[in-house]
């Protein structure tokens, strides 16, 4: 691709209307065993089937079992501010007093950490839990609140099938779950660990809580849809032609029956989607992150330098330009929380509010398909997330 003029800045573009559309689609697919259909569009119609990826045992064992002590980090608050905050968020006066009594004697100076008694954690009202955990999610020290386990709506027993959780544990998870944006989440693993009787049970809980939600996609050509526009969309207006031979093998009737979305993705995402990083991928000191996934989307062979933030920024500036319009296939979306200093996350747009990304550099996070709303949720549970849309510059 020929280099065009560089742009001097990357303005953030609000696409709130697009998030609303993604949220409504997500609600249809909230139960892990249900499928949802996209609205017919230039991409055809896509049937999404959500499922969960379990962290491989060798990667899981690189983690450690969390403490059974719940800790809330509020590093930028004074002791007086903490008390006022907890009351403002809906905690009962006696629960606040118990929490402060159990916490403040152990620390004379900020940054403050709170050690709420288990009975306080268990008795938090759902609304207060949602508000408090949204605040805690702003701080990287609160890892579980920042990236909670997302639960499906409906029957949790189906979600927990095969995990050997007891009825007591499933009931406790339901009790401690809370709403974050439009998702049902769980972040109280320390409280749940109290119910375990062995190290094997502890590892089983950690394995279940680190599962990652993603989607299978099946793409169909609609009966009245123009075949040319369908092929144009999935080949980036015929500039990305790796999927063309595969599409050419199908008759119109065959495309109407549906094809696996991964079969028409470019080579790099087709190879890595639904997989976890191999050990050798971190040989240079860093595993692939979301920028690596997004910027390698259209390449035949991946470029490892995209894991470096400076190299990723240079690539965006040289070969991409910001656009003030809805995203389309292959656009790079940059998610930036506006109320925290958390790092930005990148993704490659697919269709129907779905993106391809690796939401964290950590090895326990695979390359996945996610809804935009889910990625926003993972960025600390705040509605205040700006999204930049970048599109590769066209050649001469």
Distance between the termini: 8 Å
The biggest beta sheet reads: 6 strands, antiparallel
**Can you list the strand order of the major beta sheet?**
10-15-11-12-13-14
What is the strand tally?
A: 15
Hey, roughly how much beta strand do the residues contain? 15-25%
Specify the overall morphology.
globular
Structural class designation: alpha+beta
User: Measured on Cα atoms, how large is the radius of gyration?
Assistant: 23 Å
Regions with pLDDT < 50 over 5+ consecutive residues? 1-32
- Determine the number of helices (DSSP H or I, runs of at least 4 residues): 18
Helix content: 25-40%
Q: Mean pLDDT score, rounded?
A: 83
Explain briefly what this protein structure is.
The protein contains 18 helices and 15 strands.
Can you describe what's shown?
This protein is α+β, with helices and mostly antiparallel strands and 396 residues long. 35% of the residues lie in helices and 18% in strands. The strands form four sheets. Strands 10-15-11-12-13-14 form a six-stranded antiparallel sheet. Strands 1-2-8-9 form a four-stranded antiparallel sheet. A three-stranded antiparallel sheet has the order 5-7-6. The longest helix has 13 residues, at 16-28. The N and C termini lie close together (8 Å).
């Amino acid at each position: 691709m020929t280099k065009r003029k560089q742009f001097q800045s990357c303005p953030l573009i609000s696409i709130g209307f697009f998030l609303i559309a993604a949220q409504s689609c997500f609600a249809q697919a909230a139960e892990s065993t249900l499928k949802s259909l996209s609205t017919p569009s230039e991409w055809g119609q896509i049937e999404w089937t959500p499922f969960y990826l379990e962290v491989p045992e060798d990667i899981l064992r690189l983690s450690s079992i969390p403490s059974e002590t719940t800790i809330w980090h509020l590093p930028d608050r004074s002791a007086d501010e903490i008390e006022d905050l907890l009351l403002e968020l809906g905690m009962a006066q006696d629960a606040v007093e118990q929490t402060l009594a159990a916490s403040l004697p152990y620390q004379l100076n900020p940054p403050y950490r709170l050690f709420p008694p288990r009975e306080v954690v268990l008795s938090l009202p759902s609304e207060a839990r949602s508000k408090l955990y949204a605040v805690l999610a702003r701080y990287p020290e609160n890892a579980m609140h920042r990236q909670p386990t997302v639960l499906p709506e409906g029957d949790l027993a189906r979600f927990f099938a095969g995990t050997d959780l007891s009825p007591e544990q499933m009931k406790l998870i339901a009790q401690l779950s809370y709403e974050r944006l439009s998702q049902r989440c769980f972040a109280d693993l320390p409280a749940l660990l109290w119910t375990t009787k062995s190290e094997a049970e502890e590892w089983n809980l950690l394995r279940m809580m680190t599962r990652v939600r993603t989607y299978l996609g099946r793409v169909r050509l609609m009966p009245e849809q123009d075949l040319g526009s369908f092929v144009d969309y999935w080949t980036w207006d015929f500039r990305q032609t790796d999927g063309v031979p595969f599409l050419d093998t199908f008759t119109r009737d065959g495309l109407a029956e549906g094809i696996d979305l991964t079969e028409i993705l470019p080579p790099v995402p087709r190879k890595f989607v639904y997989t976890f990083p191999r050990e050798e991928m971190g040989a240079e000191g860093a595993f692939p992150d979301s920028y690596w996934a997004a910027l390698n989307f259209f390449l035949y062979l991946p470029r490892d330098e995209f894991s470096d933030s400076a190299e990723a920024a240079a690539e965006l500036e040289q070969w991409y330009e910001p656009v003030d319009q809805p995203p389309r296939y292959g656009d790079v979306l940059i998610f930036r929380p506006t109320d925290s200093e958390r790092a930005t996350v990148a993704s490659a747009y697919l269709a129907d509010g779905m993106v391809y990304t690796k939401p964290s550099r950590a090895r326990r996070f695979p390359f996945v398909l996610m809804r935009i709303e889910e990625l926003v949720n993972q960025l600390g549970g705040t509605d205040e997330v700006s999204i930049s849309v970048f599109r590769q510059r066209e050649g001469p």
